[in-house]
Write a structure and sequence with these properties.
By secondary structure, this protein is α+β, with helices and mostly antiparallel strands. It has two helices and four strands, in the order ααββββ. The protein is elongated and about 60 Å long.
C-alpha cells in the first residue's frame, strides 16, 4: 500500500458520518491513488505481426513505436501523456 492510499484510508475511516459528500470525496481521491499506482502497459498483438503497447487505461495512447531498423521500441514515459496513469515498465509479471 502506498502513502497516498494510507492517507486516504485514514481520512475515510475518520469521517464522522457516512454522507454522500464523503463518499464522493473518497471516489475522487481513490482515482488519484489509482493513477499514482503504476500499471503494466497493455500489449496488443495483431495478425500482421504488429505489436502495439498502449496505456492500461484504454485512453488511446500508444506507448511504443519503430526505430530506424523497424524494431519495436517503447517510449519509457513514467506517466501516460494523455491520462496521467503511472506506467510500470519493469519486466516482472
Amino acid at each position: 500500500m502506498n502513502k497516498y492510499q494510507e492517507a486516504l484510508d485514514v481520512l475515510y475511516e475518520s469521517a464522522w458520518e457516512d454522507t454522500t459528500a464523503v463518499d464522493n470525496s473518497k471516489l475522487k481521491l481513490q482515482e488519484l491513488v489509482d493513477k499514482k499506482t503504476p500499471k503494466k502497459p497493455k500489449i496488443n498483438h495483431y495478425d500482421n505481426d504488429c505489436i502495439k503497447v498502449v496505456c492500461p487505461n484504454n485512453c488511446g495512447i500508444q506507448l511504443n513505436g519503430l526505430n530506424k531498423d523497424n524494431e519495436i521500441v517503447s517510449f519509457t514515459h513514467e506517466y501516460c501523456p494523455k491520462c496521467g496513469q503511472a506506467i510500470d515498465w519493469s519486466k516482472d509479471e
